Amino acid sequence: MATLATERPTTELDDFREEVRTFLAENFPPSLKGKDNAMSAVEGPTQETPEQAAWRKAMGAKGWGVPTWPKQYGGGGLNREQAKVLAEEMARAGAWNPIGGMGVMMFGPTLLEYGSEAQKQEHIPPIARGEIRWCQGYSEPNAGSDLANLQTFAEDRGDHYLVNGQKTWTSGGQWADKCFCLVRTDKTQKQGGITFLLMDMDAPGVEVKPIRMISGMSPFCETFFTDVKVPKENRVGEEGQGWTIGKRLLQHERTNLSGGGSAFRTAGVSLADIAKKYVGVDEQGRVADPDLRARIAKWEMDWRVFQLTAMRVMAESKAVGGVSEVSSILKTVGTKLGQERAELTIEIQGLQGLGWEGEGFSEAELTGVRAWLFGKATTIYGGSTEVQNNVIAKRILGMLDHQ
Amino acid sequence: MAVLTDEQTMLRDMAREWASNESPVTAWRKVRDANEAAGFDPAAFGTMAEMGWTGIIIPEAHGGSDFGWLSLGLVIEELGKTMTASPLAASAVAASAILLGGSDEQKSAYLPRIANGELVATLAVDEGGRHDPGKIAASVSGGKLSGEKAFVAEGDSAGLFVVAASDGLYLVEAGEGVSVSRRHLADFRSHAAVSFDGAPAAKLEAGGERLLDAVLDRAAVLAAAEMLGMAGQSFDTTLAYLKQRVQFGQVLATFQALQHRMANLFSEIELMRSAVEAGLAAIDRGGDTRAAASLAKAKANEVGHLMSRELIQLHGGIGMTDEYDAGFYLKRMRVVEQMWGNAAYHRERFARLSGF
């Protein structure tokens, strides 16, 4: 595989590495190692300790939470090599990125592409500082996989829109400050009648109800809009351009979701190690149950092949300067493997791996159960596996609809 | 597709063009119909040698181009697409044994002749129908090798055998003490029973304890590259068929049940490609290639198997006819699947290497 030559002199990159090390030494207390709040992506600053807040502010001031975003909007303004150095040094120090969530992963990149100068000036810097939490107003009760069927209506009232309707599966809606929203401005055309609006979650007429899920958690909400006034300057792009902008945003979403849930990647414990603990080993030190052992091996191999594919997609995208068509399979494959791992873990642990709460279960066992249940969402949200298969069949393979 | 160098892209394009123009499946059909033990067209193999493909993994000092395994894999994949039969892979694997384990004299004696295509060489390890390198009865005493080797690929045309004996790998030339008889498998390629009865044998002394493993890794990964070519072609053929076959007044490609099966196959073949290319790249990098090779062959076996079955099913009755080419791919795929370890073998090997 060809390696790209670095464009900048090595010495300059070395200076930057030194700058990063100094910054980390001064701002990332070792006590914060591993203290990344797993929910911070949706909750944002809600639950953070003073120490975590200080770390977020330090990173926000540098713009290094969004290292490659332009400097004039509060980003790090780093080139690819510098961003790599930053990631390497952060990993070395055990430092985590305190700035994330939908603003960073999805909305920010989309607004940088489609927003007006005023919108970028207003919205990007607070995202870069990790101060504002965004949520996504896309799905509706009758617009899930068929998203373009959305009915939430924005009526033109001269200088503003009057929005009425209901959104659902609003991730982190109860903590969010703002919402990027797909609404209908024209009832006569499906995709072409959709517009991209930015709304304040504390505006009069916005009501949020958390939905209790099978995992016992409530990471999603129903969001109701009743006569909500939205100024026209909060429209991104033109009326009717919302579908195009909204789909671009989904590409960012799918790229981020393809890991199939990052929880088990960072755990660093192999299925075989878990199995040796719960199932025991034979006289040769192998997982005692040969059938389980064979399926663990198969899972680990499939996971390795998936990782190789993700790396290949990155290398190809870099080489051709665009998105590789193979990227379309990463979400379906990654999420399926994530679910399979959770199921295998339960099989390994038996009833001990199905504890809901209380005494007699380890933290890892209890978290595993909730993750197993929450993980069922991964093949449904962000374009279900079935929708992804439609996309692959139609866009890549050129298989058409019934004529 | 891995990110290729300009030279690799040129080589791949040349192989693709040659295979589709000069060696399409109709060429294989003629070889198949001729039904000879060697199972390939010597003229076509001669052209491959002229184009330098027989020397791709052989160093320039020994008459090759030293282009590496990813490059050879690209060629093997392209040839797999059109069912082009040749001893290219077998000779390369045997050459790698000499490169890794041979003395300077052995390298000089054989590598230039393999590189120019004059000598067909092959690896003889298994003594039964199931790949089992841990079970080798062939033995050497006083420089003479005796034992039975089963289903030796290209054994019918080989002039040199790299033979696994109980204490290592040996070079045995065809002739004295060597008798070869054809084993006619469903793929109509060369698989020979080779009997060694006091055949003069020269040991490959270098390469250490892992020599056989390293050579088998190369054999497995090249087999996986051939399977990748066959699977890709089977997919393309099936997709084209679904787009033109009309039933119930609709082109089959418009049925969602078939669309999702094709989307799944597309994904699987892309995953297979990652595993195969990573296997080839691991050999080029050097060092321990065992896990990468087992990953490549296991995944290739799984996906190749699935694709060859779907190839027939999605074609319906026409895929069952000898006049159509689908059967060639099914039969060859299943043979290569068994060669150098099936999926269960490589999953077990991977598990052992990983300490599961």
Automatic annotation (TrEMBL), chain A:
In residue numbers, the region (Disordered) covers: 28-49
Q: Does the keyword Flavoprotein apply?
A: yes
Q: Which family does it belong to?
A: Belongs to the acyl-CoA dehydrogenase family.
Q: Which InterPro entries match?
A: Acyl-CoA_Oxase/DH_mid-dom (IPR006091), Acyl-CoA_Oxase/DH_mid-dom_sf (IPR046373), AcylCo_DH-like_C (IPR036250), AcylCo_DH/oxidase_C (IPR009075), AcylCoA_DH/ox_N (IPR013786), AcylCoA_DH/ox_N_sf (IPR037069), AcylCoA_DH/oxidase_NM_dom_sf (IPR009100), Mycobact_Acyl-CoA_DH (IPR052161)
List the protein's name. Answer: Acyl-CoA dehydrogenase
Cofactors, names only: FAD
TM region(s), chain numbering: none
Q: Which domain of life is it from?
A: Bacteria
- Per UniProt, which keywords does this protein have? FAD, Flavoprotein, Oxidoreductase
- Which residue numbers delimit the Acyl-CoA dehydrogenase/oxidase N-terminal domain? 10-131
Residue ranges constituting the Acyl-CoA dehydrogenase/oxidase C-terminal domain according to the UniProt record: 240-397
Query: From the UniProt record, which GO molecular function terms apply?
Result: flavin adenine dinucleotide binding; oxidoreductase activity, acting on the CH-CH group of donors
Q: Which organism is it from?
A: Sphingomonas turrisvirgatae
UniProtKB/TrEMBL annotation, chain B:
Where the record annotates domain Acyl-CoA dehydrogenase/oxidase N-terminal, the positions are 5-118
Annotated keywords: FAD, Flavoprotein, Oxidoreductase
MF terms from GO for this chain are: acyl-CoA dehydrogenase activity; flavin adenine dinucleotide binding
Keyword Cell inner membrane present in the record's keywords: the answer is no
Q: Does the keyword Oxidoreductase apply?
A: yes
Output the InterPro entries linked to this UniProt entry: Acyl-CoA_Oxase/DH_mid-dom_sf, AcylCo_DH-like_C, AcylCo_DH/oxidase_C, AcylCoA_DH/ox_N, AcylCoA_DH/ox_N_sf, AcylCoA_DH/oxidase_NM_dom_sf
Residue ranges occupied by any Acyl-CoA dehydrogenase/oxidase C-terminal domain in the UniProt entry: 213-352
Can you tell me which family this protein belongs to?
Belongs to the acyl-CoA dehydrogenase family.
* Protein name according to UniProt: Acyl-CoA dehydrogenase
What organism is the protein native to?
Sphingomonas turrisvirgatae
Organism classification: Bacteria, Pseudomonadati, Pseudomonadota, Alphaproteobacteria, Sphingomonadales
